[in-house]
Every structure is written in structure tokens, then in C-alpha cells.
Design brief:
Layout (H helix, E strand, L loop, with lengths): L1 E7 L10 H5 L6 H21 L2 E8 L15 E5 L13
Parallel strand pairs: 1-2, 2-3
Length: 93
Amino acid sequence: MKKVYVGTDMEGCAGIVSFEDQSYPDGRYHDRGMRIVTAEVNAAIEGMLGAGVEDVLVADGHGPGAIWWEDLHPAAELIHGRPNGPRSGRDPI
């Protein structure tokens, strides 16, 4: 079984160009920034599934969160908050 762990952070996403406006929860374009991150992660998940990956674990590494969990691809599992990463309590990948 192919398994993938994906670590994300809002500042590394295509289309995120203003830290204050898009990354801060009270930024005027924060919701749009979260939509961009969620769409980019979902596109990556689609590619992984197409390549035969069967288990995708996504860690939202942006402090206040940058992924709309209800819009995340249903084939993926999301880790949000602290601690995150391989030692978060989930079975190892």
C-alpha cells in the first residue's frame, strides 16, 4: 500500500502573496487564502490517487489553520493543531 504524508503551510502555497492580508485570521483576504490552500492540497491529492497512493495524511502546519477541513478531499485524513506530524497519535504511515 502506498502512503503519503503531506505537510502544508499557507505561506508556501501558490497565490499567497500577502502575509498580512491572507495569512492572518483577521486579514481581509484570509478566507480566500484558505480556499487557495485547500484547492492546491486537493489537486495534489488527486494526483497522488492517480499515481496509486491509497492513504493520504495531510498536516495543516499553519498555526491558526489554512485548510477548510469540510472541503478537503474525502480520501485524505487531516491533522490540525498541535502536536502534528508523524508522532501525532495516528498509526505510522
